[in-house]
Amino acid sequence: MSVAPSGPSASFLAELERHREALSKALQGGRGEAPPPPSRSEVLASIENIIQGVIKSLARNEAPVLILENRSSWGNIKFEDSVGLQMVSHCSTRKVKSDSAITAQKFALILKMLSVVYKLVQSNTYATKRDIYYTNIQLFGNQSVVDNIISDISCMLKVPRRNLHILSTSKGLISGNLSYTEEDGTKVNCTCSSTAVAVSPNIHGIRNLITDAKYILIVEKDATFQRLLDDNFCHKMSPCIMITGKGVPDLNTRLMIKKLWDTFHIPVFTLVDADPHGIEIMCIYKYGSLSMSFEAHNLTVPAIRWLGLLPSDIERLNIPKDTLIPLTKHDQTKLDSLQKRPYIDHQPFWKKEMEIMAASRMKAEIQVLTSLAPDYLSRVYLLNKLKFGGWI
């Protein structure tokens, strides 16, 4: 592979423009539009309906029961290429009974959380999941309990979490050719430098987004993201936006990428490890996750393309064998699961790459490129990939 020039070439910009136009045409053919968000009064009414149901059961001397959609069953999922994984309208459910030793505590916690949400929406104030957890540590036990109950309520009410007035502390970082204004009026400039900006905890409130970026690069891991910042990658080829969810992405990072795509419709590429875990992370950005399939319209970006690290790159670049890692049993299980996902048949090139990984029984982290040269990732690999259209 030859070394690319340090500046943006006409062929590079032309290739990105062709990619952008192809994505625009695909959009014109129909894409999954998110339903309009519910108003505050609609959210309050939905909660009131739940509580009224509980009161009516008590009035009949019956033990109240809450019905929750099963968010962990692939049987409740359908796949649409324009949206990704989404929950079917009539899915299997589970009962949370108030008189069952197994579910009584969860029943009580859901009612408690509905009370918290009702007060937040009614007063038009916001709280983070962490804030809620620390209001009663003994009651909730741990943070994951709060997180799961909030997701269950969001699914039960058919209301995006941001409309419950509950925010998450962001773990993602963003840098590059982008500026915007937060809901409170704070102006944010993400100009690429040695530091990055934390992804906003309130993506819905962001406005006045401005960029000259030609593409968005999603980076799986923070270490790779920081290395690209140190190498000043954003300015080497063409204006771009870089973002990382530091592994499995949090909700805010996914919402931010969705907002950038909906606003600018510029190409979106992913840079992940050539292993089953990296591929699954990329699939979450592109097609969504099982547990959050009920909110797919607000989170997925099916236009995302896989830039690297491709399993086929390992042999093509003559990566030293001693830098590769054998697939573990867990990796094999994950890879088998990915190959059976409903979206893989729609991505024959992705399927081929996974077959290469399965046949070699080896995986590679992005860092293996340093075995070719310390700055090979930013100086050669990414620049040539972008310049010559090396994505799938």
Automatic annotation (TrEMBL):
Q: Which Gene3D superfamilies match?
A: 3.40.1360.10, Winged helix-like DNA-binding domain superfamily/Winged helix DNA-binding domain (1.10.10.10)
**Annotated catalysed reactions:** ATP-dependent breakage, passage and rejoining of double-stranded DNA
Quaternary data: Heterotetramer of SPO11 and 2 TOP6BL chains. Interacts with TOP6BL.
Q: Which residues form the Spo11/DNA topoisomerase VI subunit A N-terminal domain?
A: 105-166
Q: Which residues form the active site?
A: Y134 (o-(5'-phospho-dna)-tyrosine intermediate)
Q: Summarize the protein's role.
A: Component of a topoisomerase 6 complex specifically required for meiotic recombination. Together with TOP6BL, mediates DNA cleavage that forms the double-strand breaks (DSB) that initiate meiotic recombination. The complex promotes relaxation of negative and positive supercoiled DNA and DNA decatenation through cleavage and ligation cycles. Essential for the phosphorylation of SMC3, HORMAD1 and HORMAD2.
Say where the protein is mainly found: nucleus
The Meiosis-specific protein Spo11 domain covers 3-35
Q: What domain of life?
A: Eukaryota
Annotated ranges, domain Topoisomerase 6 subunit A/Spo11 TOPRIM: 215-386
Similarity comment: family membership: Belongs to the TOP6A family.
Q: Which PROSITE patterns match?
A: TOPO_IIB (PS52041)
Q: Which cofactor does it need?
A: Mg(2+)
User: Biological process GO annotation list?
Assistant: double-strand break repair involved in meiotic recombination; male meiosis I; meiotic DNA double-strand break formation; meiotic DNA double-strand break processing; meiotic telomere clustering; oogenesis; ovarian follicle development; protein localization to chromosome
User: Pfam families from the xrefs?
Assistant: SPO11_like (PF03533), TOP6A-Spo11_Toprim (PF21180), TP6A_N (PF04406)
UniProt keywords (A-Z) are:
DNA-binding, Isomerase, Magnesium, Meiosis, Metal-binding, Nucleus, Topoisomerase
A GO molecular function held by the record: DNA binding
Give an example GO cellular component term for this record: nuclear chromosome
Protein species of origin? Ornithorhynchus anatinus (Duckbill platypus)
Q: What is its EC number?
A: 5.6.2.2
Give compartment(s). Answer: Nucleus
Q: Which InterPro entries match?
A: Meiosis_Spo11 (IPR004084), Meiotic_Spo11 (IPR013048), Spo11/TopoVI_A (IPR002815), Spo11/TopoVI_A_N (IPR013049), Spo11/TopoVI_A_sf (IPR036078), TOPRIM_Topo6A/Spo11 (IPR034136), WH-like_DNA-bd_sf (IPR036388)
Put simply, this protein is called Meiotic recombination protein SPO11
| SUPFAM superfamilies assigned | DNA topoisomerase IV, alpha subunit
